[in-house]
């Protein structure tokens, strides 16, 4: 991915400043865009992507010490070709509603994503957030994005016949 670095926006910093220690930062969704921000413009100042293209649900959030890893999963299904220049992470501010929390921009060096009809593109991307205190980022995870790894399955499967016992299956 050609987006070299992501920054906390001023609205994201304001949300962080008014969130009491130990309280959560509720991430809501990802957004990708095609707008190349000029070098002289500060990413911290923007409140929306330059040229939004698509919202993407959050696939997972992992909090560990002072860091939180927020992942998304992209699939170009039904999409035309485009150049991916922008990535935004949105969060819920209790006073302002949904805000652009963090953002990155390739500034003209974005990745070309082929049209679905030419090549299927599917990948996981993410942003690591670092806090001065204990990280506590939450999100509503789309169940359509949950995939079990071989390690997950091996840990749950009855090794005799390879089937997962019913009591180990999540509720549907």
What tags apply to this protein structure?
172 residues; single chain; mainly beta; flat; 6-stranded mixed sheet; 3-stranded antiparallel sheet; 2 helices
Short recap of the structure:
It is built from 2 helices and 11 strands, in the order βαββββββββββα. It is mainly β and 172 residues long.
Describe the structure.
The protein has 172 residues and is mainly beta. The chain starts with 5 loop residues before the first strand and ends in a 16-residue tail after the last helix. The protein has two helices and eleven strands, in the order βαββββββββββα. The strands form three sheets. Strands 1, 2, 3, 7, 8 and 11 form a six-stranded mixed β-sheet that branches.
Shape: flat
The description of the largest β-sheet is: 6 strands, mixed
Integer-rounded radius of gyration: 18 Å
List low-confidence stretches: none
Number of helices, where a helix is a run of at least 4 consecutive DSSP H or I residues:
2
Helix content: under 10%
Oligomer: single chain
Class by helix and strand content? Answer: mainly beta
- Mean pLDDT, to the nearest integer, reads 88
Number of strands: 11
First-to-last CA distance: 35 Å
Strand content: 35-45%
Order of helices and strands: EHEEEEEEEEEEH
